[in-house]
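Raw record, unedited: Peptide methionine sulfoxide reductase MsrB
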Amino acid sequence: MTSDDDIHKLKDNAVWKGKLTPDQYRVMREKGTEKPFTGEYYHSNEVGTYVCAACGNELFTSETKFDSGTGWPSFTDPANRSHVELREDQSHGMVRTEVVCGKCGAHLGHVFDDGPGASGKRYCINSVCLDLKKADEKKP
């Protein structure tokens, strides 16, 4: 039996093209990246929860966001570790750890072992993959 989450991961790319902007599609489905220092959430200090722009899965909170100086929003931990998947990425002549949405499989960015705090992690995430649900917004 296939769960709703499994079905969400299997959506045809034509469906994703109709749902996402061209920039979101390039990053989230083709594993691209946005230019550093240009993303909407790079400098954001607003309080809330960052969700997947494709499916609404809760990914990160403003409490774990920090300024890494890299040009992308950076977080020390996901909101819930089961909401993201980590995969080995050997593209671009190096080995990195890719971060993907645990619900829809969208590429989000990469995680590195040079972050602050107890986790020592830096989840370097493309702004175009995120929507911010501000803390003062009421849930539907």
